Structures are given as structure tokens and as C-alpha cells.
Amino acid sequence: MTLLKIARMGHPVLVRRADDIPDPTAREIRNLVENMVETMIDAQGVGLAAPQVHVSKRVIIFSSPEGRSDADSPKTDFSPLTALINPVIEILSEEQDLGWEGCLSIPGLSGAVPRYRHIRYKGFAPDGKAIDREATGFHARVVQHECDHLDGILYTMRMPDLSMLAFTDELRRHNLSGDGESDGDDDGDDGDDDGDDSEFE
Ligand SMILES: [Zn+2]
Fold first, then answer.
1. 196 CA distance to ligand 1 centroid (A)?
2. CA of 74 to the centre of ligand 1 (A)
3. Residue range 90-115, pLDDT digits in tens
4. Of 46, 92, 119, 125, which is most buried, counting CB atoms within 10 Å of its CB?
5. Centroid of ligand 1 to alpha carbon of 101 (angstroms)
6. Residue 97 class from Cβ within 10 Å (0-12 exposed, 13-18 middle, 19+ buried)?
7. Is 170 a catalytic residue?
8. What is the pTM of this model?
9. Residue 200's pLDDT is what?
10. Which of 90, 101, 134, 146 is catalytic?
11. Cα angle, residue 100 at apex, residues 37 and 60 outer, rounded to 5°
12. Residue partners of 190: CB distance under 8 A and separation at least 6
């Protein structure tokens, strides 16, 4: 496996529509997904889209671990590490929540972004199996963020109020941020601005 270089805002690959993948089970896609997983874990993100590693194809990876939300959160808030090829989102409720997001392609910054609260998504796993799930909470947020990357949309382009765009370490210093859904773990800033689990990406 290989660590891949992450494209930063300003690179053209981040603002174009990524190509559909004709064969989700192709070996090159499996290799890409393996390298994306390694790259995301190394960067301490919770999501990554192929255009962010300079590959303009419709594949994303993400997870929504338990522990981000309250214990009584619905099951649809959570997802194991998932690779999703040619994803399609269906909005199940017009309700939106404003939550803090970060992006590995926009390092050091966080912004408050409105996202749909309840969605359904479909696509394919690298073994060719169909995936069809409902998602709420952070799970819904991360999937919307990653799918946006496939259409050349960065979270900053979804922000209605740019006064809510900030350096993540300043937000922490002033106790304004966590990450959208439920953080609660950023009170004791350890001074390391790399380990921000709101940086999905
Ligand atoms: Zn991102």
C-alpha cells in the first residue's frame, strides 16, 4: 500500500466532476481504495474522496464511528469504514443542521455548513455488492461532504455565512468549535493541530 498525496484547494481536480466507474470490481479500483484508506488513516481523517488524491473517479471512503454521538443516538448515525463507488444520494427530509466541518484539502480551517439531516445513499462496494443505507447525523454529514467532492464542490462553497469560516486552532482556543454533531472531546487542547477528528475530509 502507498500513502497518496492530498490535493489542496486550488488544484483543478477538486472542482471538476469526477468520472463514473464502469467496473467497481476492477483491480485498479481495489488498489485505489486500499491506498485511500491508508492515506486517510495517516491523515487522521474520517472520510476521503478520490479527487482529493488526484484521481478523478467516483469513489469515496468514510466512517462514522460510535462514540462521536450520544449513546442513545439512532443506529443510522453510525457507519463502519465503507468504500462506496458511484454513490447516489436521496434526501429523505428537507430538514438541515448546521455543523462544523473540516477538510484535508483545506488544512487548518473549519467552517459551519448546513447539511440534510436524513438521507439514503446507494452505490457499490469494491467487491461488486450493492450498498443501500439510510444515514442520519454525522454519518449523513460525512457522506454528503464526500459526495460533494465528486461533483467538484468544497464545503466552503456550501457556507451561507463566511463569518463561520475559521482557523481550527482559533476555534478551539475560544471554545467555539467541535465538529458539527457532538464533539465534547476538544476541551483539553493538546496543542497538536493535526489530530483534529473533525477533519473529515
Ligand atoms: Zn473534504
1. 14
2. 25
3. 999 999 999 999 999 999 999 999 99
4. 46
5. 8
6. middle
7. no
8. 0.87
9. 61
10. 146
11. 25
12. none
